[in-house]
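Morning run. Coffee first, then this:
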Amino acid sequence: MNNVEVKKLINSFKYAIQGIISSFKTERNMKIHVFIMILVIIWGIIFKISVTEWIVCALLFALVISGELFNTAIETVVDMIMPEINDKAKLAKDISAGAVLVLAITAVIVGLIIFVPKIIAIF
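And here it is:
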């Protein structure tokens, strides 16, 4: 790789990180997802979840956060292209939000499968 290619690669990572930070700063749901992710990490440490359970949690963190990033990108583009109220624009935004909801519900179900037995075992 030459210097120009290295600089382009570094910039692509920089822009991606800026996008994640921007989403966290502007999107309420992203803050909620990150907060829940931190809670799950704390619970995982407390309950000493297995390596496999950590992998499952990490994959679900990535899926939900990525889903929220895609949703934010789609909503931003739709708002740019169609600033006035439009049924198809609303549909696109609702569908992308629905995709994140499916991911989040799945993550909650898997989280319950992992953590409920550990919580019950305490009592």
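The radius of gyration is 18 Å. Good start to the day.
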